[in-house]
């Protein structure tokens, strides 16, 4: 794995190399399972990778309510029309950060989920803002390596109540807005949330084709 890691980030940004990066980021962690066991999560969909802690308040097939703890993330924002293109471009930059493009020159283990904060453009031909983030592993939460690329930044998600909907398969331009609309439909009038943005959260590499676990997150405003 290591002989590839230096070469791959310099490859041309093609769909194929990006897919490869997606897969390698996750595979790379498989080999270091034992190292990160301390902070590993017991949630089956976190697959023994570090993932942010939450307390479950409600769980049905229609939706869940979670109380997340404050957490640090490394992020980049892409403005565009295409969810998949934006996600892949952002993933590439974040991958370079975890591969060592940070002020501590350390390799950082892959985590889940990869979240994408979608701030929809106002109209079908207006660009949306996609902010894609990797969760910073527990051992780096307090002494977080700073990104060396200016498009990347470290941000904190506060303690939040989150409305969550689980869906399966591959996330694409067609299904995530539908899942978000469905989450909106199952919430009642007292369950309010910030309507200016929402998140997709992905827990699988693109080479996993079965039992893919994805989520839509709405940040509640009825604390
Ligand atoms: C919610 O319920 C499902 C189905 O019973 C279960 O698999 C899952 O572990 C529960 N909790 C979360 C956080 O998904
Ligand atoms: C995207 O972000 C830019 C810069 O912060 C902002 O000016 C713009 O209004 C945002 N667009 C949407 C659709 O939120
Ligand atoms: C989007 O994903 C859904 C569910 O995985 C699938 O049924 C649909 O064909 C996909 N659409 C496109 C345009 O890829
Ligand atoms: C909305 O749902 C919550 C949780 O089930 C419930 O406590 C509340 O009473 C409901 N509100 C309305 C207006 O139905």
TrEMBL record:
Supply the source organism for this entry: Patiria miniata (Bat star)
Signal sequence bounds: 1-32
Q: What SUPFAM superfamilies does this protein map onto?
A: Probable bacterial effector-binding domain (SSF55136)
Asked if the record carries the keyword Mitochondrion, the reply is: no
Gene3D superfamilies per UniProt? Regulatory factor, effector binding domain
The entry's family comment says: Belongs to the HEBP family.
Alphabetical UniProt keywords: Signal
Q: Does the keyword Signal apply?
A: yes
**Name of the protein:** Heme-binding protein 2
